[in-house]
Design brief:
The chain is α+β, with helices and mostly antiparallel strands. It folds into two domains: 210 residues, CheC-like (Chemotaxis protein chec, 3-Layer(aba) Sandwich), CATH 3.40.1550.10; 60 residues, SpoA-like (Surface presentation of antigens (SPOA)), CATH 2.30.330.10. It has seven helices and eleven strands. The strands form two sheets. Strands 1, 2, 3, 4, 5, 6 and 7 form a seven-stranded antiparallel β-sheet that branches. The longest helix is centred in the middle third of the chain and has 22 residues. The chain is elongated and about 115 Å long. It is found in: Bacterial flagellum basal body; Cell inner membrane. InterPro entries: CheC-like_sf, Flag_FliM, FliN-like_C, SpoA-like_sf. Belongs to the FliM family.
Length: 328
C-alpha cells in the first residue's frame, strides 16, 4: 500500500499556500495547447539518427583510389578525381535531377538489401570510345531524351561496370564483403522503378578528371539497404579507445597518401665531360659513352630501381630488374 504521509512538511505547505495566495507562485498556467509534439518513430529502421552514414566516406575514398587506378589502365591516360561526402535525400529528388540520356545500371550488392544504382556520365563512355577507336562519339552530348546507346557504347559500359564492381568489392571488403551483379540497364531515368519516390537514399558522387574534363560516377544505395549490416554503421560511442581512434586515423592517412602522385625519372647513362668540351658541342655532334648494364629509375630524385629500357606497343617502357631500396 502506498505511503499516505505528506511528502512536504507543515511549514513547507504553509509557505506554498502563501506563495499561491500572494501571486509569487503561478497557479493558472493551464495546458500548453499551442505546442505540438514532433512525431518521431523510435523503432523506424530508416531513422537517420541511429546510423553513422559518414562511415561510408572512408569506403568511398578507397573506392575512388581503386577506380582511378583501374580506369587509368582502361583508357591509357591518367585519371584524377575526388569524392563528395555521402548525402541523404529522397529517391524522387535524386532521380528527378537526372537528365536523359544517362548510363543507369541497376545492380545488386549482396548482402545489402534491395537494388542499388550506378550512374555513369555518358561523356565518360565517350572518352573511352575515343581512347579505344581514336574518334569521337555523340553519346552523352545529345539533349534528346530518347537517345539510345549503341552496341559499342553498351560494351564500353560493361567494361566500366566490371572495373566498378571490382573496385566496390575491394573497397567494401574491410567493412562488409560484397558480391555485385548487374540487373538491368536504361538510358532514361523515368524508366527506373526500383524505389518509391519518398524513400530515403544514400548518394555517393565521384568527380573524375579525364582528358582535362570532369566526368561523374554516382552510386545510389537505398537507405534500408544497410539494414543487414546496421551494426557496422551505428554511431560510435564515447568509450572508443585512443588506440582505436589512432588506428582509424592511420588507416585514413595511409589511404590518402597512397593516392599521392610521384615523378619517375629513367636515366640511361651519365656522362662526365669538361666545360670546354661541353661548350664546343654543336647540333648533330655525336657523343660516345659506354652503355651500362641497366638504366636507373629515380622516384622523386631518389634512386629506386635498375631496369631495361625497351618498348611496349607504341610506348617506351622500362622493365624493372633490381630494387635499390632496402625492404623493411
Amino acid at each position: 500500500m502506498a505511503d499516505k504521509e505528506n511528502v512536504l512538511s507543515p511549514e513547507e505547505l504553509d509557505a506554498l499556500a502563501a506563495g499561491v495566495k500572494d501571486g509569487s507562485i503561478e497557479s493558472n498556467t493551464g495546458l500548453n495547447t499551442q505546442l505540438k509534439a514532433v512525431k518521431h518513430d523510435l523503432v523506424n529502421e530508416e531513422s537517420a539518427g541511429g546510423m553513422n552514414t559518414s562511415a561510408i566516406n572512408p569506403i568511398n575514398e578507397r573506392f575512388l583510389i581503386l577506380l582511378k587506378q583501374r580506369l587509368s589502365g582502361v583508357i591509357r591516360t591518367p585519371v584524377k578525381g575526388a569524392a563528395e561526402e555521402v548525402s541523404i535525400q529522397t529517391y524522387g529528388e535524386f532521380i528527378g535531377g537526372l537528365k536523359a540520356p544517362q548510363a543507369i545500371n541497376v545492380i545488386r550488392a549482396r548482402p545489402l538489401h534491395g537494388e542499388a544504382l550506378v550512374i555513369i556520365d555518358p561523356n565518360l563512355i565517350a572518352e573511352c570510345f575515343n581512347s579505344f577507336f581514336g574518334s569521337s562519339t555523340a553519346s552523352g552530348v545529345s539533349d534528346s531524351g530518347d537517345k539510345e546507346f549503341t552496341r559499342t557504347e553498351l560494351s564500353i559500359n560493361k567494361i566500366l561496370m566490371a572495373e566498378i564492381y571490382n573496385s566496390l568489392q575491394e573497397a567494401w571488403a574491410p567493412t562488409q564483403p560484397l558480391t555485385c551483379k548487374g540487373v538491368d540497364f536504361t538510358s532514361d531515368p523515368k524508366k527506373v522503378k526500383t524505389m518509391k519516390f519518398d524513400e530515403l537514399v544514400l548518394v555517393s558522387r565521384f568527380h573524375l578528371l579525364v582528358a582535362e574534363a570532369e566526368r561523374t560516377v554516382e552510386i545510389l544505395y537505398p537507405y534500408y539497404a544497410l539494414k543487414s549490416i546496421r551494426n557496422s554503421f551505428l554511431r560510435p560511442t564515447s568509450h572508443i579507445g585512443k588506440d582505436d581512434l589512432a588506428a582509424r586515423w592511420s588507416a585514413n592517412l595511409k589511404s590518402a597518401v597512397m593516392d599521392a602522385e610521384l615523378e619517375l625519372t629513367v636515366s640511361l647513362a651519365q656522362i662526365r665531360t669538361t666545360l670546354k668540351e661541353f661548350e664546343s658541342l654543336r647540333q648533330d655532334d655525336i657523343v660516345y659513352f659506354a652503355k651500362p648494364a641497366f638504366a636507373t629509375v629515380d622516384v622523386e630524385n631518389t634512386r629506386a630501381f635498375e631496369g631495361n629500357i625497351g618498348t611496349q606497343g607504341s610506348n617506351m617502357a622500362v622493365q624493372l630488374a633490381n630494387s635499390l631500396v632496402s625492404s623493411k
